[in-house]
Amino acid sequence: LRPVDAERPYVLLSCAVSVDGYIDDATGSRLVLSNAEDADRVDEVRATCDAILVGANTIRRDDPRLLVRSADRRARRLSHGRPASPLRVTVTGTGDLDPAARFFRTPGAGRLLYCTTTAEAPTRQRLGGLATVVGAGDPIDLRLLLADLAGRGVRRLLVEGGSAVHTWFLTLNVADELQLAVAPLFVGDSRAPRFVGDGVFGWTAEHRMALAETRPVGDIALLRYLLKR
Ligand SMILES: NC(=O)c1ccc[n+]([C@@H]2O[C@H](COP(=O)([O-])OP(=O)(O)OC[C@H]3O[C@@H](n4cnc5c(N)ncnc54)[C@H](OP(=O)(O)O)[C@@H]3O)[C@@H](O)[C@H]2O)c1
User: What residues flank ligand 1, with Cβ below 6 Å?
Assistant: First the structure.
């Protein structure tokens, strides 16, 4: 797959949802929506990407490593002259992230943090030893951020959530593909985060997304949509 235009990478959004559209529950502990087969599928997708982006709250709440787990896939990437795992990228308005988070501490991938220009100096002071800190506007300009990623050689970007980040990418119409993994369970609690929040989305009854693939992955249904612009 190639970038849609030279200004930005190909952007693939990936998310696991309950059948009632939630991406987590409202308890303090993380809800497991995925299954082993789907985790392996996502690992394969990660292995095809140059960078993985998550929002600051996902780091706070889930503390993900964002690595390619399979040794074979890491070796394949290395044999093609790529780093073993994609670049880890996050976005934060406040810069308020724990330096002990796995995002910063787990070896095996580079780290890049986009924040507001206002937050850039204090954030660099706190986290600059752990990640490359880039101010990207007040508020953050997503197109600038994507152009910056393209300039760093990112041709294929995987966006793994959470809700605010998916909403941002979709409402600004800068996503090319959506992979929704629908888990066979209900959350049934409106305090829990949904896949996206409120917003004006380009895909409506008059302009529907293109369903490119449906596939069972164990007990999960993978829905792959192409987001025509
Ligand atoms: N099921 C799944 O596949 C999946 C995947 C990932 C996450 N999740 C779940 O999603 C939930 C987190 O979602 P969320 O919506 O709360 O958080 P999120 O999207 O992970 O992160 C939101 C934060 O990112 C920063 N941010 C996002 N957009 C920004 C913008 N336009 N400008 C500046 N900063 C921006 C802000 O950080 P600051 O607060 O620092 O300003 C904001 O508070 C968690 O429950 C997690 O478990 C589920």
Answer: 15-16, 23-24, 30, 33, 54-58, 61-62, 91-94, 96, 139-140, 160-165, 168, 193
